[in-house]
Amino acid sequence: MKRSHIALFRYLSALWLSGVVTLALATWACFLLGLSSATAACVYLVNIVLLSLMDSFVTAVIFPVIAVGCLDFFFIEPLFAFEVANPQDVTTLSAFLITSIVITSLVRRLRRLGQAHREQARLLDLTRDSILVRDLENVITYWNRGGEELYGWRREEAVGKVAHQLLQTIFPAPLERMTEELFRSGRWEGELLHTRRDGTRVTVSSRWSVQRGDEGAEHLGGIDGAAGAGDGEGEVAR
């Protein structure tokens, strides 16, 4: 058996064990406290959402089904039987099942998106060019490792700052005109003069572009690469 299969088997075993134990403890606590079916359903839902953070299709479908069985057996009349005497309870169980599956699916999707964004950020850190993302107010929202190496500010120091103020940018033309061109064509390219953290100046070949997110939000992306010497002392950005 390949190592990947063994690792998958161990992961699924741990997932099943933790899920079964978690739901069993929740059932025991709710039954011991004499909670109503509605309250028990809320407790189950919280546990299922936490289990869904382990990111498995099993948690998105199987555990909600198990929770519905526990609700029916322990908290809905007749007790200790997989029967439903009141038609309204059928609606309650169906609503709980659908809600659980929808919520766990959304949690898994958000986790995958977060992982994808982290992977993209890791890849952007591999380039030596400075890559930064700004909002429409020119506030930095992303700053890669290349920016740290080129300008000297760490990511946490740069994010949240106005880019042109932080870098003391000297533009080749009025900023308003450059911004108009950026939004008209979707991109702008040219040379800028920036000041690094140590006070030395560097001329960079800069490329700006307008990035639109999934919800239509606009951001300004920029890539800066060394274009020549720095200030009069002959500093060169590397």
Word description of this protein:
The protein has 2 domains: 3-122, no CATH class; 128-230, PAS domain (Beta-Lactamase). The model is unreliable at 228-238 (pLDDT under 50). The protein is elongated. A 5-stranded antiparallel beta sheet has the order 2-1-5-4-3. The chain is of the alpha+beta class and 238 residues long. It has helices at residues 3-33, 37-52, 57-75, 87-124, 145-151, 155-158, 163-166, 175-185; strands at 130-134, 140-143, 187-195, 201-212, 218-230. The longest helix has 38 residues, at 87-124. It contains 8 helices and 5 strands. 21% of the residues are buried.
Provide a concise account of the structure shown.
The chain has helices spanning 3-33, 37-52, 57-75, 87-124, 145-151, 155-158, 163-166, 175-185, and strands at residues 130-134, 140-143, 187-195, 201-212, 218-230. The protein is an alpha+beta fold and 238 residues long. The radius of gyration is 28 Å and the shape is elongated.
Q: What level of helicity do the residues show?
A: 40-55%
What low-confidence regions span 5 or more consecutive residues with pLDDT below 50?
228-238
Structural class: alpha+beta
Oligomeric category: single chain
- Indicate the mean pLDDT: 82
Large-scale geometry: elongated
Number of continuous helical runs: 8
Query: What is the CA-based Rg, rounded?
Result: 28 Å
Compute the number of structural domains: 2
List the secondary-structure elements in sequence, H or E. Answer: HHHHEEHHHHEEE
End-to-end span in angstroms? 48 Å
Question: How many β-strands, per DSSP?
Answer: 5
Let me know the largest β-sheet: 5 strands, antiparallel
> Which range does the strand content fall in?
15-25%
- What topology, given as strand order, has the largest sheet? 2-1-5-4-3
